[in-house]
From TrEMBL:
<protein>
    <submittedName>
        <fullName>Lipid droplet phospholipase 1-like isoform X3</fullName>
    </submittedName>
</protein>
<dbReference type="InterPro" id="IPR044294">
    <property type="entry name" value="Lipase-like"/>
</dbReference>
<feature type="domain" description="DUF676">
    <location>
        <begin position="3"/>
        <end position="189"/>
    </location>
</feature>
<dbReference type="InterPro" id="IPR029058">
    <property type="entry name" value="AB_hydrolase_fold"/>
</dbReference>
<dbReference type="InterPro" id="IPR007751">
    <property type="entry name" value="DUF676_lipase-like"/>
</dbReference>
<dbReference type="Pfam" id="PF05057">
    <property type="entry name" value="DUF676"/>
</dbReference>
Length: 296
């Protein structure tokens, strides 16, 4: 099964789309849908919701459930009301350069070499993460995830000066990010920020959520606002800047996490989502934070 994660974000997204539709078919009383994803799973989820997104209209029988008639004037995900879209340590901006993969130590030569050879190990998924998948003249898949692409409405579908998209359809979008010790996914790519937007943080004194060190509510900005910020950041990769701009067209709640004082800090990428309960219990406060703030 692990090898299936190497098939590419789009192939995994198609599989997840089919699984979601199958669950809806077997559970016709379902009314709402949320996505909680970790690491590259967040990109797969973004592809999936774009695949299953249906704009406000009367009549999408293929994707509508028996209870969707009351909601037919609203955008849906496979006929269901979208509620939460939550990611943990997801490389939203990819893994190419700019210290996006910490274990490469920010050394340009290492980062460039990784982009050239990563597909040997991680196949199509590696190409997607390092933005080297130029097929038939199309931009990389992660770039296409911030715009309309065929029948997939990922984020930038413009209707009467309002951007309607799969991500916009959710009531809230949340990105949990490790500020350090995540050697697989860097802080900027998981928190969808530019260099100059990374906040200063201090060790938390919150007893209930000791590893939550910073929280931010980011309002949606239009293209001109995002572009004005982009000009000020001279060191930003062009495609990466376009992805930040696209993703910033919708509001986000960003939660920054630090395991600096944890004995398991070097496994932060797994600890943040408590991959193994017997090993990663120190990340439980992050899960409690998600449940308390976004799932209740």
């Amino acid at each position: 099964m692990a090898a299936l994660t190497l098939d590419g974000v789009d192939v995994m997204g198609e599989r997840l789309s089919e699984e979601v539709l199958d669950v809806i078919k077997r559970k016709p009383d379902m009314r709402k849908i949320s996505f909680v994803a970790h690491s590259v799973g967040g990109l797969v989820a973004r592809y999936t919701i774009g695949r299953l997104y249906r704009p406000p209209s009367k009549g999408n029988p293929e994707y509508s459930s028996s209870n969707s008639s009351a909601e037919e004037s609203k955008a849906t995900i496979a006929g269901l009301e979208p509620v939460n879209f939550i990611t943990f340590a997801t490389p939203h901006l990819g893994s190419r350069g700019n210290k996006q993969v910490p274990f490469l130590f920010g050394v340009p030569a290492f980062e460039k070499a990784a982009g050239l050879f990563i597909h040997w190990i991680f196949r199509r998924t590696g190409r997607h993460l390092f933005l080297t998948d130029h097929v038939d003249g199309k931009p990389p898949l992660l770039k296409r995830l911030v715009e309309d692409d065929g029948d997939c409405h990922f984020i930038n579908e413009l209707h009467v000066n309002i951007f309607r998209s799969a991500l916009q359809a959710f009531k809230r979008r949340v990105a949990y990010s490790n500020v350090g010790y995540d050697h697989i996914v860097g802080w900027r790519t998981s928190s969808i920020r530019r260099h100059n937007e990374l906040p200063k943080w201090e060790d938390s004194i919150n007893e209930k959520y000791p590893h939550i060190v910073y929280e931010e509510r980011c309002k949606a900005c239009d293209g001109e606002q995002c572009d004005s910020v982009l000009v000020e950041d001279d060191g930003l990769d062009e495609i990466e800047g376009e992805m930040v701009t696209g993703l910033s067209r919708v509001s986000w709640e960003k939660v920054d996490v630090s395991f600096h004082s944890s004995r398991m800090r070097f496994a932060a990428h797994s600890v943040i989502q408590v991959k193994y309960h017997y090993m990663h219990t120190e990340g439980a406060d992050v899960i409690r934070h998600m449940i308390d703030h976004f799932l209740l």
